[in-house]
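pls design
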């Protein structure tokens, strides 16, 4: 059985958790599919991410500072 899809899911999950940690440390809000997440929700992310891949985008304020990071689903497998 090919383990590459499972490895990719694990990498994606680790990436999202890392991004949430960095964002929380700087006071930036993180949303995944429009729902706010924090380190308190990381176990829920495994269910949210199941069979999906995500793309990151940023929302800035009027001064160009990043105030929110959004992860949007791009592919369901």
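designed seq:
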């Amino acid at each position: 059985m090919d383990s590459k899809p499972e490895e990719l899911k694990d990498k994606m999950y680790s990436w999202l958790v890392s991004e949430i940690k960095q964002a929380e440390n700087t006071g930036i809000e993180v949303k995944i599919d429009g729902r706010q997440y924090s380190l308190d929700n990381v176990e829920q992310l495994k269910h949210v991410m199941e069979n999906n891949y995500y793309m990151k985008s940023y929302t800035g304020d009027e001064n160009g500072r990043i105030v929110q990071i959004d992860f949007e689903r791009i592919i369901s497998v």
